[in-house]
Amino acid sequence: MNSNPPDSRAARAALTRLIEPGDLTGSALVAVLGPTAALDLICGPEDRIPASLQQAVAETVGTGGTKALKVEAGLERWRPRVRDLAPARDLETMRRLGGGFLTPEDDHWPAKLDALGTAAPIGLWWRGRSESADLDAVRRRIAVVGSRDATEYGIRATHELVAPLVERGAQIVSGGAYGIDAAAHRAALASLTASSGRGQADPTMAVMAGGLDRFYPSGNDDLIRQVADHGIVLAEVAPGTSPTRWRFLQRNRLIAALCDVTVVVEARWRSGALTTARRAAEMGREVGAVPGSVFSANSAGCHRLIAEGAGRVVTRPEDVVEMAGGIERGPAPSASADGRAHDGLDIQDLLLYDALPVRTATTPDNLCRVAGLGIGAVLGGLSRLQSRGLAVQSRAGWTRGGAT
Amino acid sequence: MNSNPPDSRAARAALTRLIEPGDLTGSALVAVLGPTAALDLICGPEDRIPASLQQAVAETVGTGGTKALKVEAGLERWRPRVRDLAPARDLETMRRLGGGFLTPEDDHWPAKLDALGTAAPIGLWWRGRSESADLDAVRRRIAVVGSRDATEYGIRATHELVAPLVERGAQIVSGGAYGIDAAAHRAALASLTASSGRGQADPTMAVMAGGLDRFYPSGNDDLIRQVADHGIVLAEVAPGTSPTRWRFLQRNRLIAALCDVTVVVEARWRSGALTTARRAAEMGREVGAVPGSVFSANSAGCHRLIAEGAGRVVTRPEDVVEMAGGIERGPAPSASADGRAHDGLDIQDLLLYDALPVRTATTPDNLCRVAGLGIGAVLGGLSRLQSRGLAVQSRAGWTRGGAT
């Protein structure tokens, strides 16, 4: 039924002001009628909704006609805001601020948002580099989120995680908040000046809970402006909309949907970052959590995610690369195993190696007794150990070789 | 075929000197012939093993007749040590040291070791309180193991984990090594003097890799003596046997088998503690790992266990209690959730709560617009919020109540 007339773009811009993010009745109405007719219905005088439309909306949402999904109840929610509508002004405001408005009809609309189904946003307002506004470009996006009251540990962990990921070509997505979010954006922006030109053009994206005419929190205004200068800032609410608790929760679902992997660096037992992670897990996206001290309340949420099986342990950038199924041809992951001289020995040779004295040389007969091995096993084993430098033969007999 | 004659005890004592821990051919031979006949065979002159006996041993081990399981090859391993046999002297030595020797025929033999199957020890040497030598007493045993080069963080985590578990009646089992092992024993022993008599008689057990005539490492001699004075020290090797790498690995399987839960507090990427944890997991026992800083090499092994799904996240003693299926009637686990005033609100009321101004009072009409709700939802919601102290009505209108 979506007829997508020429003014559907302005209609969607208007609808982002009327309908709260995640209001499934509203999204379903737009899906069923198309944006222009949906807007006409909301702005019109009609209070009675035909049963067939109600039925179609309920079916689109897919949960049957529960009370919360009644279109008539929706009209009650949406209509008090009609008087504030000025979509042309909003579009002009955003153009002036160096941005725009993306709709699902645009080529640059991110296909990843399809995972949200009916809960996908009606449109996306953006500010930033116009090249960065191709949200459907093939690109690994990694969400790095966490506590506002981050610890020094969390900040450091964020930087050490983000820098190598950006260097490999990932875009770091976060929410522009204080703490871990800010550290993630900063670490990504730092790549622009670091590593002698290996930095990439749009290393980071901020997804906001309020309108993009003003950045929240104001203390991060400079930082988020930098994100816009070198990357992109998104919101699904119209300019002038204030961030509320509900909109933060819904913003989190956007971050989860936009990213291949969501990593929580620090989070308290209850934390908005956990909702981002859970939304990502529900969508089948990879979720990671950085462990920390059991005495730090700011790691309790990360440990909770891991304990509940919702998040995998992330201790190194390579863990995220693996979860993302690769990012690009970066340097090979550094070897993490500290192999030892005696690795790979079979049991008998390990027994023999243990029995070999470090200083005073001994005889094969003696080694039989000490190691509890037959003479054949000892002679054969000594030869194998010798070839690996683990046993040394002198005139006095045998001693251990190599590092312990 | 196990005839269990009167001298089977001395025979088992002898066999613990001849056969290395975990030597499945040896254990199977003992299972097939009984300890006395097995010892006679090893000490006798016969080199040729009847095919029927070889077959029975291979079937007992359950892996078919692979080369390593040939009884004739076993004789080559075991016979060089026959000249050192003196089981009566060993039993007397242990009696003199305040200990003894347990065999699977004893009532006090721990049934939990059945999980090892053929790899169960031939016997267990012990030193300690004779009351503590009832290893089959119904009692939760928790293994707490980890790095020798523990950090301050690991030591503290060990203490905070162990003390409440002991207070609830668990016995803490470890390996007597430096670092986490020592911290675990110490924390358990501390309960004897702490908590005004709520401490229990035998709070801890040490399982050693070498003979119990001398404690290893010597720097922990005093500590392990205290463990013996107030609990129990075990080994499956005869007195005078030195600890070797192989015996440490096999000792780890004993710790895993004896305990309901194995917790690794700190471990490097490769660490003996991980083998204990893996053996426990293979037996279907619960395994936990304490997370820590991603910058600490001593937590890398713990994170590895968790990442591989071999260990669950342990951040509090309650986690271990839960894994053990309870320990005894202890104090209820402390609530870990920091609930907030607005928890439990439905979506509409949460939207409304967010829309309520903190200072300047507002009208229901205004709230409709700000919250995006119909007037019915706003009036009903205000009433619900008011009843929870989350909305306050004055003559000027409505403001938010309660803590944010």
From TrEMBL, chains A, B:
<dbReference type="InterPro" id="IPR057666">
    <property type="entry name" value="DrpA_SLOG"/>
</dbReference>
<protein>
    <submittedName>
        <fullName>DNA processing protein DprA</fullName>
    </submittedName>
</protein>
<comment type="similarity">
    <text>Belongs to the DprA/Smf family.</text>
</comment>
<feature type="domain" description="Smf/DprA SLOG">
    <location>
        <begin position="101"/>
        <end position="323"/>
    </location>
</feature>
<dbReference type="Pfam" id="PF02481">
    <property type="entry name" value="DNA_processg_A"/>
</dbReference>
<dbReference type="InterPro" id="IPR003488">
    <property type="entry name" value="DprA"/>
</dbReference>
